[in-house]
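A quick word before the example. In earlier lectures we treated sequence and structure as two separate objects. From today on, think of them as two lines of the same record. Here is DNA-3-methyladenine glycosylase I written that way.
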Amino acid sequence: MSHYCDLAPGHPFHGPYHDTEYGFPVDDDQVLFERLVLEINQAGLSWLTVLKKRDAFRLAFDDFDIDRIAAYGVDERQRLLSDAGIIRNRLKVDAVIHNAGVVQALCRGHGSFKAWLDHHHPLSHADWVKLFRKTFRFTGPEIVGEFLMSTGYLPGAHRADCPVHASILTAGPAWQTA
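And the structure line, produced from the sequence above:
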């Protein structure tokens, strides 16, 4: 079975993501939200498709500004559904806007999205999925698992013999303290 660590090195899109982002702990709520948005949009598609559209997503979703996205109305929703640079799926667009409002509420209750994640850590993958399904829209097992692996809350982003794995361990991912 092929692993991301086999596919990514040297690839123009996968390589930089694999080497500098995937599995590293994330402290910034805007980056956490971006990862959630990208994982939601990956559902049913390849990760390469999402990475190629990442800059268009940043532009379309106001650099993943949570407050701005939570305030989107009918005009912004229609703009997004007409934007050929992103994935124009009504359920995904609606989920992103809804989830921005959810993250706002989590920030009010916990101080930040990261603090909410930290409050619930550690959980098993199955318990994380239950929590995300109760809290967010469009978050099934694969989306939740990849989001949590990509942000350092669950292990498994890299093989133990991958050179990036050592860098992640040095950065202190949450799963390491579970």
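Notice the following. The domain at 4-177 is CATH 1.10.340.30 (Endonuclease III; domain 1). We will return to this example when we discuss secondary structure assignment.
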